[in-house]
Specification:
By secondary structure, the protein is mainly α.
C-alpha cells in the first residue's frame, strides 16, 4: 500500500512539474458515430487531396524506375568487386 501511495505522489509531482492535466480533464474531439460517419469523413477528406496528372504520374514513375535500375547496377558492381577481393584474400593469389 505504501508503494502505491508513493507512486501516486510521484505521478502527481510529475504532472504538476510538466503542466499535464489528469486524463479525466482532457477534452475529447466530437466524433460522428459509426461506420457511416467514418466513410462520410473519408469522402470529405478525399476531395481535398491534390491528385497528380497523368503526365506527373508517368514522369515520377520513370524517376522511380531509373533510381531502381541505378541501385541494381551499383549493388551488382559492388558484389562483383567484393567477390574478387575475397577470392584474392582467401586463395592467396
Amino acid at each position: 500500500m505504501a508503494q502505491t501511495r508513493m507512486k501516486d505522489d510521484r505521478d502527481k509531482d510529475n504532472s504538476e512539474k510538466f503542466g499535464m492535466q489528469p486524463a479525466s480533464s482532457v477534452p475529447l474531439p466530437k466524433m460522428r458515430k459509426g461506420l457511416k460517419g467514418f466513410y462520410r469523413d473519408v469522402l470529405r477528406e478525399m476531395k481535398h487531396v491534390h491528385w497528380p496528372t497523368r503526365h506527373e504520374t508517368n514522369r515520377l514513375t520513370g524517376v522511380v524506375l531509373a533510381i531502381c535500375a541505378l541501385t541494381v547496377l551499383i549493388l551488382t558492381a559492388l558484389s562483383q568487386v567484393f567477390q574478387v577481393v575475397f577470392d584474392i584474400i582467401l586463395r592467396g593469389k
